[in-house]
Design a protein that fits this description.
79% of the residues lie in helices and 0% in strands. The protein has 588 residues and is mostly helical. The protein has two domains: 9-328, no CATH class; 348-585, Up-down Bundle (Methane Monooxygenase Hydroxylase, Chain G, domain 1).
Length: 588
Amino acid sequence: MNGIIFAVITLLGGLAFFLYGMNVMSSGLEKMAKGKLEKSLIKVTSKKFLALVFGAGITIAIQSSSALTVMLVGLVNSGLLDFGQTIGVLMGSNIGTTLTAWILSLAGIEGDNLVLELLKPKNFSLVFALVGILMIMAAKKRKNKDIGSILVGFAVLMFGMTLMSDAMEPLTKMEGFTSLLTAFENPFLAVAFGAVFTGIIQSSAASVGILQTAASAALATGGGVTYGMAIPIIMGQNIGTCVTAIISSIGVSRNAKKVAVVHLSFNIIGTLICLIPFCILSYVVDIPFLKKAITPFEIAIVHSIFNVFTTALLFPFTKMLEAIANKIVPEVDGEKQGKLLDERLLTVPSFAVTNALDVVVEMSEVSQKAFEKAVALVGNYNDKEAAEVSEMETLLDNYEDQLGTYMVKISSTGVSDSDSKKIAKILHTINDFERIGDHAENLVDVAREINDKKIVFSHEATAEIAVLKDAVLEILRITDLAFRNNDLQMASSVEPLEQVIDDIIADIKSHHVSRLQHGNCTIELGFVLTDLLTNYERVSDHCSNVAVAIIESQHGTFEAHEYLSHVKNDPNSAYTKAFEEYKQKFAL
């Protein structure tokens, strides 16, 4: 009895090692993509066949169809992908997930030859573990450390597989084990078991691996998991793997929910198409091979045939699957939109960073529109437009809070060097975009004061303020485009314009003092003018900060003072040329 209890504990421990190793390996493989994964996914999903191939490729790369599905839910929820683009990827993931079974089937290779022994995963994984640990400890480059993590993850995965295999051996000798296998001769029970067990551990790869382990252990004791048992279990495993996506779809937008629905309906329909004729044939006709014991290698073959067949069969009917999802998840009036930033994407940091960058681009756009509205209110005030500026400023505050928290969470997941630069750029710019919103609201207050007090500037001051306004709107436009397109050349043109704006403001202040001395202006007008100029100047400064962050992010350093000193002190630089051009364009 004690031996059985210990075997069960070992089996569960082996499963834990297996799942942890797969997680470590998947994480390392994703980091190796260096952010290229999301760009390629978004690009190829517009074509159905390419989406299928790419879905299979990504699943092979990250070794988890569940992770890919959760990733797709997050991408749709965050607006990076359209729902229809995900269907081909989901189908491809069912094919890609079969690779794990092929790797695990190598454990069943028989022979005393050294080469054959080395082909067994439990043997070569030990070499992987040694090499991986050395790379993690000694390597200086992040890429090499990620490779080390992949190797160690695979070794831990195979160690878990070995533990499960060792634990299964005494369990197969139990009297109850034979009767348990007999129960799975009922295909409906076998499908249900495969679905429930896979749903509990949330990994079809691990579920197939355990089936292979059970088949191998049963063969060693003279028994066996038959084809008739294994085929329905494999069908059920495909349904069970949808549980992760269903859980991840809780609380997301309608389109994101439909991703999980398509994944589930695709696997259920595929299973029914195969299960119904399988049951009819097995009951009506005596098929000898269904009673034959199946090997781990043959399980990998069955798993691949089933997934490829169902995918090929349903691939022409993606529109039908989309219609089913639309029917199951109908339109709801006043439907709550998905979250600003989707935490499901944190499992794949490169996607999370892309999601965050898209939100910062939107933040840039909102800050620009808020300031444009505020500028338009000066001399033409109305409460409705003022309220809209206030709403935009509140939205920008929310953007900054959520992005700051999200960036901390992404950083803790372990990211590539490329993504680290993007994160740094985001953290160095979100405060500037938020502050532009603050100055827009300040400008509304100035506009309200001008309106309430019926303040009128002199013709000279009005003309000068108009030039300054055009220059500030121009620097906002350039900054937004530079950030949106990560355009270094455009970013480099921000600083010279910022310097021109500073000079314009200095001239306006000087002219105001002169008018004041000649009695052509009042102290009260001066206070309002100073508030106006201060907000224009601060916005220009924040644009300069954003531009510097864009440029410096490419070099991995954020020494703004050093950069600005360098470009301003070089008389032959592009800065000097741009400064002169802007000086002429915005001359008072």
